[in-house]
Amino acid sequence: MISVSKSKFFLVLICLPIVFLTACKVEYSFTGTTLDYNVTQTFSVANFFNDSGGGPANMGQNFTESLKDYFQRNTQLELVQSSGDLQFEGAITRYSVTPQATVTSTDPNIPDRAGQMRLTIAVEVNYMNLSNEEEDTKKTFSFYQDYDPRTTSSLEVESDLIEVIFENIIQDIFTSTVANW
Q1: Where are the domains of the chain?
Q2: Which superkingdom is the protein from (predicted)?
Q3: Which pLDDT score is estimated for 17?
Q4: Fold exhibited by the domain 37-177
Q5: Alpha-carbon distances of 10 from 6, 16, 17, 18, 20, rounded to whole Å
Q6: Closest C-alpha to 143, from 123, 127, 117
Q7: Quick check: 9 pLDDT over 90?
C-alpha cells in the first residue's frame, strides 16, 4: 500500500507541471517581441527621406528597405504597401562628420589635423500601432561610428559606416516599438 502511494505521488509530480504548461498560454519569441499575432498581423513602412542635407543620394531608400527587411526577418508580420496594423514613417534628420581627436604636429609648418572622425546619423521615426494607440510615438534614434581619416578617406568607408549605423538604429527602433524595452 505504501508503494502505491509513492507511485501516485511521483505521478502527480510529473503530471502537474505538464498540466500547468498546457493550461497556460505562453507566447515566447526568440527576438523578444511582445506582439500578439492574433491582433497585429501587418506592418507598413512609408519611404524615409533624407532631410539631413548630407550623405549618399540613396540613403533614405536604403534605410527604408533595411527597416522592412529587419521586421520581416524578426517578426511574423506581413509587409503591406500601406495602412498596416503597425506603421512606420519618418526621415533621416542628421548626417554629420565631425572631428573627435586632434593630432598636433611638432612642425609649425604642418597644421593640426583630425586624428579621428565621427559619422553621426539621426532618424526621426513616427510609429503608429492601430491596435494600441497608447504605444504610438514619435522619437529620434541616433548612432555614430568613428574612423581614422589618416588611414582611409570618408568616401572609402562611408557605405560600411552607414550600414553599421543603420543596423544599430533599426535594432533600437525594433526594441523600442515591438519589444517594448
Answers
A1: 37-177
A2: Bacteria
A3: 52
A4: Double Stranded RNA Binding Domain (3.30.160)
A5: 6, 10, 12, 13, 16
A6: 123
A7: no
Which one-letter amino acid corresponds to residue 172?
D
Pairing of strands 86-103, 113-129: antiparallel
* Short-list 99, 98, 95, 92, CA closest to 55: 95
Angle, CA of 9, 13 and 15, to the nearest 5°: 115
CA–CA dist 21, 37 (Å, integer): 20
CB 63 within 8 A of CB 159: no
Cell output for 177: 516599438
Mean pLDDT, the chain, rounded, equals 82
Does the reported pTM lie above 0.85? no
The confidence score (pLDDT) of residue 166 equals 98
**CB hemisphere CA count around 88 (13 angstroms):** 30
Nearest-angstrom CA–CA distance, 156 and 144 = 17
